[in-house]
Amino acid sequence: MQFETKAVRAGIKPDPTTGAIVPPIYQSATYVLEEVGKDKGFDYTRSSNPTRAVLEANLAALESGEYGVCFASGMSAVDAVFRMFKAGDHFVMSDDVYGGVTRLCNQILTKYGMTFTYVNTSDLSTIEPAIQENTKMIWLETPTNPLLKVTDLEGVAAIGKKHGILTGVDNTFATPYLMRPIEMGIDIVLHSTTKYLSGHNQIIGGAVITNHQHIFDDLKFMQKSMGAIPSPFDCWLCLSGIKTLHLRMEKHSENGMAVAKFLEAHPKVSKVNYPGLENHPNHEVAKRQMNGKFSGMISFELNGGIEAGRTLMNSVQMCYLAESLGAVETMVTHPATMTHAGVPRDDRYARGLTDSLVRVSVGIEAIEDIIADLEQALEKV
Ligand SMILES: Cc1ncc(COP(=O)(O)O)c(C=O)c1O
Fold first, then answer.
1. Which protein residues touch ligand 1 with a CB less than 6 Å away?
2. How many whole angstroms separate alpha carbon 99 and alpha carbon 213?
3. pLDDT at 330 over 90
4. Which residue has the higher pLDDT, 230 or 351?
5. H or E element that contains 138
6. Among 75, 198, 229, 324, which residue has the most ligand 1 atoms within 8 Å of its CB, making it the best to mutate?
């Protein structure tokens, strides 16, 4: 199946009892057994649920993986991945990751004896020197949140294989329509399905996809043991969203490029981070591994610093000032006080995330309306 067909059809069959074309929302906590030890494949919804199983199969197919496991949020998916490891294990991480991931690693997982080294993985030469004897996984975002740094995934997969350590990629920003890390040799792919996959600002969800049976077994065990599962209704909404993923990502990418070019040409803007711009340091890598499209995430800085950024964010009218990304509505975010507020200021500055950075998740509205709104907000700066 081509990607577009998989988005609409993979893992989805008409309901065997009624023929319903859309998989039903199996809002049931438990399942009646025919006799002791004999169920119909489901025994308790924390362990598995028919609606969730359809979503897991669909996501696995989209990412060219064998197995998918869904969680209650992107963060609970990240938590489950790291809890496969143990005290004493070490991880090499992208230095620019979602602030919630830094918070989980530095403020929670370190309490259980795990250690983390953050490097700029967009420069592959930084990775090997950070690997220690007890390193178990290289964990990446590409493009990163919020600086839109891009890492060469084939290069990272080769380093992981050479050292016998796992590689994992948070593919939330690119989505499998633009980039499929497993096809490039990466072991684990993660999504906040809250974002582009569901796409409509309706749910919080997460998923992990892999080709390794042992990782799948571990993650299923985490899902059942910790119970951070999405509701059947949320799975159903996510499945509905995914059916138009390819159409939305085309429009997000087209609008993203137009907004990036508009911002780049604007005299009040000092810097634009967007992998689609030719002056992006890893533009060529992004072009190759993201199918020539660059999604809808942009971050930028204004000449007037934090005050100018604040004025702009308070002046948007059609675009929303909101936390989150990847939905049909254009949303503007201030990473320093919103998504990355949990990262200490010194750490943020060390990785280039200044107080004046503005992030835009470009939606699928008419590009004229998005640019007109940003233009009027910039006039007030
Ligand atoms: C790249 C990335 N990964 C993971 C997450 C966490 O996802 P969730 O908010 O669904 O827990 C986010 C949230 O913004 C994110 O941007």
1. 73-75, 98, 100, 141, 145, 170, 172, 192, 194, 204, 206, 339
2. 30
3. yes
4. 230
5. strand 135-141
6. 75
Phi-psi region of 332 (alpha: psi -120 to 50; beta: other; left: phi over 0): beta
CATH 3.80.30.20 fits 3-242, yes or no: no
Q: How many residues make up the chain in this entry?
A: 381
Structural domain 246-380, CATH architecture:
Alpha-Beta Complex (3.90)
Taking the centre of ligand 1 as the mean of its atom positions, its distance from the CA of residue 98, in whole angstroms, is 7
Domain boundaries, the chain: 3-242, 246-380
Q: Which residue's CA is the closest to the ligand 1 atom numbered 7?
A: 74
* Nearest residue to 283 (alpha-carbon basis) of 122, 95, 171, 138: 122
Q: How many CB atoms lie within 10 A of CB 16?
A: 7
CA 265 to centroid of ligand 1, rounded, Å: 30
Q: What is the pLDDT of residue 352?
A: 87
pTM, two decimals, is: 0.97
Query: Considering the chain, what is the average pLDDT of its residues?
Result: 97
Residue of 26, 67, 98, 118 with catalytic role: 98
Instruction: Give percent of the chain with pLDDT exceeding 90.
Output: 93
pLDDT of the residue at 147: 96
* Rounded distance from Cα 172 to ligand 1 centre (Å): 7
Q: Does the structure show a pLDDT above 90 at 94?
A: yes
Ligand 1: atom nearest CA of 206 is: 10
Lowest mean pLDDT among 155-164, 175-184, 217-226, 340-349: 340-349
69 close to 223: Cβ distance less than 8 angstroms? yes
Return the residue whose CA atom lies nearest to atom 10 of ligand 1: 74
